[in-house]
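Supplementary Text 2. Reproducibility record for the structural model of the 1178-residue chain.

All settings were left at their defaults, and a single model was retained for analysis rather than an ensemble. We include the record here because the model underlies the residue-level annotations in Supplementary Table 4.
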Amino acid sequence: METCATSPAHTFFKFSPSSSFSPSPSSLSFLNVYFLKPIKTLLPHCSRQFSRSQCPPRGAKLTRFVASAAPATADDVVAEKLPADIQVTETPEPNSRVRLSVEVPAAVCDDCYRTVIKEFTKRSKVPGFRPGKNVPESILIGYVGKENVKKATIESILKRTLPHAMSSVSGRALEDSVRISTKFPEMESTYSSMKSLRYDVIVDVVPEVKWVPEDGYKNLKIVVEIDKEIDAQTAAEQELRRRHKALGALRIVTDRGLQVGDVAILDISATTIEQDESAAQSIPSAESKGFQFDTEDGDKVLPDFLDSIIGIKRGETKSFPYVFPDSWKQEDLRGVRAQFTVDCKELFYRDLPELNDSIADKILSGSSTIEEVKEILLQKFLEVEQTAKEQATDNAILDQLHKMVEVDIPPSLFEEQGRQLYGAQLLQIQANMKLNEQQLASLSSPKAVKEYLENQKENITNIIKQNLAVGDIFKRENLQILTDELVKEVENSISEFKRHNQEYDEGRVKEQVQEVVEGAKVLEWLRERADIQCFQLDVNTFVVNVRCGACGFMYLCVMLGEVQVHFVGSSGSKSEKASLGLLYRILWLMHFIANVEMAVVEAENPHLGQITCGSLLQQLQQIWDEVGETDEERDKMLLQLEQECLDVYKRKVDHAVKSRAHLLQTLADARVELTNLLSALGEKTYVGIPEQTLGTIKEQLAAIAPALEKLWKQKDDRVKEFSDVQSQIQKICAEIAGTSEPVESPVVDESDLSTKKLDEFHAQLQDLQKEKSERLHKVLEFVSTVHDLCAVLGMDFFTTVTEVHPSLNDSRGVQSKSISNDTLARLANTVLALKEDKKKRLQKLQELATQLIDLWNLMDTPPEERSLFDHVTCNISASVDEVTVPGALALDVIEQAEVEVERLDQLKASRMKEIAFKKQAELEEIFAHAHIEIDTEAAREKILSIIDSGNFEPAELLADMDNQIVKAKEEAVSRKDILDKVEKWMSACEEESWLEDYNRDENRYNASRGAHLNLKRAEKARILVNKIPALVDSLIAKTRAWEQDRGVTFTYDGVPLLAMLDEYVMLRHDREEEKKRLRDQKKLHEQLNKEPDSPFGSTPSPARQPSTKKVVGPRANGGANGSTSRRLSLNAHQNGSRSVNKDGRRDSRPGAPVNYVAMSKEDAASHVSGTEPLPNTP
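Retained model, structure tokens:
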């Protein structure tokens, strides 16, 4: 537990409650990381009164936690209706997270794709198409880019489906905690291969609060530790003592050492004590220069520190060992043995006025007696005591609550709460120490925030548990808040904003007030039911700081080597800083004036007697004796003589007193002047100044005169230095401001000529010189950029920069160029304008280059003619930054390209028929290779009629033909697989025909030349022929699938392929049947030859060989009996052409493979000789 003393409400309790701060709104971006909005931190100590400082600024939304079903950038987006349902799978994950696996069907993806194409059609300006005209999809995709279309489609899918996916966690999801975990390239890959999309979404959900034990919050037992300082009576007495001390003046101690009640200015250093002295290290946190040490608060600084330095005198140094106590606030120093060295710079005692009713009004404004002061202070501290006790009780309850709940905290909730706490501390540090930009940037870095989150993990987790526990209790117990109370608190908060002239959002203020009031309601409910026990601790580590009435008090606090004087009163607080050296000089001057006053009061009495006039009196006595003067006459004459002597002595003493007073005044003036010079020069001491009590007054004057002379000279030199520096500062400021008026001589403040002030001026001058250098460098960069842009655009550089400012001309020196804000702004605007002009010209030139290349390709322009415009086409794919050639984007170059495009457009119109027929020939060639039959003559006649009619733009006609070519290529690609199998089938049929002829050859096994090659071919042919049935089946299946997908008949040169295949299958079946019949006939013939002679028959002669007949079978070139058979072929060249009938039309009858053989009836009925081999078929 740590002490908190940052505000009156935090003075007397031992717990560290969380404090709110106002973070800046988070920037959200769709398809990027989703950020969790700020959480509202519960502030129990604000339950009594809602403070303006607790409200969030305009634009920041603070909530305990917010559940939402919408993504970060779609809070107000209504879910669009989808053409098909998406599938969402919910998977719980640790830390109160849910993973949503979203599967988007192809129908939704296709709908989003069509939407993206429509948007691109509206926004894109495709060259060659009028605005509003429908651009063919293929041309549009080629213009926009296939990758860009794909990315835009995926983004559209995510934008439309994410609200539907989040509907499954509606009411549970933390607002703006949605993150898409699937990487974009992975989504691109899935979409490209499957034409569907799958992605994962991770969302934080409201954590479930589990009480251990259940309902354990209803009977809390709370032990509250109350410090002894909370006692109102003790605190009031300490405050009265502090105010009384503030009225006393500090006097320099010269004749003794430090004792309790004194104030000392100390330089403190400390090192660790090690066995090896070289290993000793300094302790930075224990070191301080010019530290003001009040002995009455000695133990509050460091326990037992005062006892070690009691008796130290001014200018004395003490060194002593010290062991840091185990309760020391800095953990790494607990128990560390250190060697302290203390140097006493100054020693003061307090000259306190008597504590009576005469100073009551000074102690507390409006009071007349000390008793009244004591009563008012006691009443105020009684209020503080009660508030502190209530606050300590509330914090003890909250501390007990977070120990009783188990919560699986989402990372986004933890990070946001930690950032709030860190931001609050950063604002507090900034308010107290006035950090510079470098320190603020260092403390605001992501590394610093990350370290804070790691170090304060336990504290942040406890705060979140407290918030969730309080909210859960409010819901569980159905607590209610009064509307009147809420309205009153809101009105008070809004009035605070208005009183301080600050903007506010009434809705957000109401929401914040409601959260605070709900928290207060829960704490009140818990206090009523809890068993609360309080006991006091004797801890002396608190500083009481109470504002009361119009009476203020002053205390000195040494910080960062400076003395800071705080004036605290009813109107707030104001602090003024003075250097520590100046305080020394003021105190020394007070001591000097006191000594001078004591010297003036001292006076010597004139001493009259006979010592000076003895001889004269003796002589006068002798004369009186001789004359015989009476005693009365003698007494009278002596009395007169005594009076005259007294008058002379009085005149001499008066004159001497006046002379001494004059000398003292001169000495005082010299010392005052010396003090003023030292103060002005910022010097604490000067070596040549003698001690003020040594020597006579004249000796002191003579001793101080050289020092004054040197200081006067040093002052003159310093004034000159200040004047030079300030003149340079004014000159540079005038250059930055852009003023042309002559700079006046600077006015030097001779009251402050310290080196510190001079260093500040030098630092300011260095900053200005650095800024001037940076500005000059920026101006030169701008001028260089303008020069490069003007060179590329073919513009006059000198005219352009002279229009911005005449000093930017290269003929002038670098240092004479204008560096004002106006010049920089005008240069920046000029660069932006030139870049925009360059971008537009490059876009125009690229469009012209694209048109030129298209026209050249269309009309087969020779390379020699194209090379004339290489300077135009070379930048067709270049970016704006890549174009750096002088004159590359000059207006005459663009005009030349425009003229050439216009000329080619006119030439294109005149050669339209030739170009159109060229594209038609290309289309016919694609169809021929794809074995698709088209009516070429009708197509050409239609093109001629369109061109002659003039109803269509040439560009539209060519675009339409290009679209047809693209579709024809797509058709050819879709037919390629089937056509490849058809070619394989035809090749196999040819091999089958050859194999049949080979089998019929009786001499095929003779050792003739090439017989072994035919044998190898026959083996391969048999393998290939065996594959024909499977090939035909596969081809039929693929053809039918193609026809079902396309909804049209697959034709091969105008003949349905399935018809051809069906006919081939039937013919093959007939041929197999014929072969079977021949084999059966051959067996029958063999059986007949083996039967015995019939009783009436004759036996053939053994010498006579049976006659041999050739087997009747199908041939490739005719029947077995020499009759000509019909051989149907798809085409003569097997490339898609067909025979032309006598009417001049192409025969559209189905063709057959080359081994398709029609067998005559005679051939079918003929017998086969027993010696003729049968043909081998697969």
